[in-house]
Amino acid sequence: MTHFTGSVAKPCDFVLFGTSGDLARRKLIPSLYQLDKAGLLHDGTRILGVARQEMSQEEYLEAIRASLGQFLKEAVDDDVLQRLLKRCHYLSMDFTQPEGYQQFHELRQSAPDNVMVNYFATPPSIYGAICRCLHSSSLITSSTRVVLEKPIGHDLESSKVINDQVAEFFEENQIYRIDHYLGKETVQNLVALRFANSLFASKWDNRTIDHVQITVAEEVGIEGRWSYFDQAGQMRDMIQNHLLQVLSLVAMDPPVNLDADSIRDEKVKVLKSLRPINANNVFDTTVRGQYSAGFLKGQPVPGYLEEEGANLNSDTETFAALRVDIDNWRWSGVPFYLRTGKRMPFKCSEIVVYFKNPPHNLYRDSYRQLPPNKLTIRLQPHEGVEIQMMNKVPGLDETQRLQTTKLDLSFSDTFKDQRVADAYERLLLECMLGNQSLFVRRDEVEQAWTWCDSILRAWGDSHELPKAYPAGTWGPVASVALITKDGRSWD
Ligand code: NDP
């Protein structure tokens, strides 16, 4: 197996605020290990882990070993581990109090030119306090970067507050907002598929495409995070960020080049073109659901309101399906159907592009309507690209018999020797390199919130409860009606 190739960033001090937390242990530390293994961390790069609890340097290194032992999806290579551990230093402090930040000065004296990349794996409510302390401790220069985890707010107003707090001390070109979907290999391939293949480039609009479906289905339920999820719901947790980011990449116009702002300029235009959903059209264009008890893979699973810590009166949605219209020249008349939910029959994220039928049906004796050509981009699992087309069944019979067949490009079969990097590996590397293409700009976040807030308001004002669906099914029956009333069906 070979690793993905890439450039080595200049030496940096990667400051991991919240190094003892779930995200750091599960994703970030294993990703740093993989980057080190691939030779993509500069020899001078250091990892400065910070959290509140008191820990000696030895205890911290032991904690890193334990995280890798638990979360790395392969055996730990001792040489790589030793190299990684040499980079790691632990600092204990309360992030909201400036006193502790003096410790950085002592460490940085030995490598003053290292670029400081501050990763906030902490609750967003303290992003502002950390920025203020970094500033008051004179730790911010024009090369200092901050990486922000989601959620950036729970609506437009609260996201503006967080963004303003950070913007008081950092310019936009120093701020890296994570949406880990953008780091997925398959999501990056979407851009290549669209803009490196003339086959699609000339066919990507309302003259050829009938509609698009984007599905992000999770098999898991709440995974012990009931109170966090209940504040958010599927709209805030999945649609406002991941699904709208994927939709923007599918629908955007060709960027001038692959620079961060060229791509983000095009994505934000799509977000601005989304037709508003409000009290006038919310019932025609959206369905919210909440799972009840059911069966998954033959095993009984509890309903959302029966999960540990549940509030019985919760009306939070664990499923949402939407018909989205993009009011611009390219997509006029082409609906995008989005659906995402928890406790679905299996985990799957995919984009399916349905093409229009040929203008005239030569096979009308056998087919009243020809099955459409379909392009399926599987984001996970079984990453790959599939095209459904019609072919003649070989044979000498008089009538021309056709059959739907699939051209299937499975990434794991095609790129056998290439390891597919985790999204966080790519994103950590990019923020060390100083490339913002895979990070979300402030105007994108705010535009997405503006659109989602209107739906959330309409749902709230309607006082209608989410529709129940048994765990292990594809959502409420109403979500089927949402698409069949347009004469279409879910893939
Ligand atoms: P955790 O609660 O598990 O970890 C929080 C970390 O922040 C701990 O290391 C904690 O240190 C530290 N911390 C919090 N407050 C302070 C403080 N005042 N001073 C010093 N240290 C502090 O959170 P997660 O790791 O789950 O999440 C971190 C961020 O990532 C959040 O914004 C979350 O929304 C986001 N995120 C998380 C995902 C996940 O899968 N976990 C997925 C996507 C986003 P100590 O223990 O010492 O108090």
TrEMBL record:
Residues 15-189 form the Glucose-6-phosphate dehydrogenase NAD-binding domain. Substrate binds at H180, K184, E218, D237, K342, K347. Pfam families: G6PD_C, G6PD_N. GO terms for cellular component: cytosol. Gene3D superfamilies: Dihydrodipicolinate Reductase, domain 2, NAD(P)-binding Rossmann-like Domain. GO terms for biological process: glucose metabolic process; pentose-phosphate shunt, oxidative branch. It comes from the Bacteria. Residues 192-490 form the Glucose-6-phosphate dehydrogenase C-terminal domain. Belongs to the glucose-6-phosphate dehydrogenase family. HAMAP family: G6PD. This is Glucose-6-phosphate 1-dehydrogenase. It comes from Ferrimonas aestuarii.
